[in-house]
Design a protein that fits this description.
The chain is α+β, with helices and mostly antiparallel strands and 118 residues long. It has five helices and five strands. The strands form two sheets. Strands 1-5-4 form a three-stranded antiparallel sheet. Strands 2-3 form a two-stranded antiparallel ribbon.
Length: 118
């Protein structure tokens, strides 16, 4: 049974400006996420934006509001390339063991995420 649904949309340009600041990147994205996004070349800003939207969508689905640190919510890709959420720290303790489904997409200007918690 679905216990939560969250969605988020964000302007890629807005994230592109703030990820230029290392402090922001380190407070929001894990090293694994940064490595993945930076390897995307000209699409790195879209990858960062989609992952940021995923974190926002997850907290909306959880129904708690944002819990820090945001690095406790990590967006990874499975062996087929599908995005998955990995939880750690305070967020993992709060969320418990739940099935989390995630979908990410982006266009030229916007990135979006949908998260379902069961």
């Amino acid at each position: 049974m679905i216990s939560g649904l969250g969605t988020d949309i964000i302007e890629i340009e807005r994230i592109e400006r703030v990820v230029a600041k290392k402090n922001f990147r380190d407070n929001v994205f894990t090293q694994t996420e940064q490595t993945y996004c930076n390897a995307r070349g000209k699409n790195s800003a879209a990858s960062y934006a989609a992952r940021f939207a995923a974190k926002e969508a997850f907290f909306k689905a959880l129904g708690t509001g944002i819990i820090l640190p945001l690095t406790d919510v990590e967006v990874i890709n499975d062996e087929r390339g599908a995005p998955k959420i990995h939880l750690s720290g305070k967020v993992a303790a709060l969320a418990g063991t739940k099935k989390i489904s995630l979908s990410l997409s982006h266009s030229k200007d916007f990135a979006t995420a949908v998260c379902i918690i069961e």
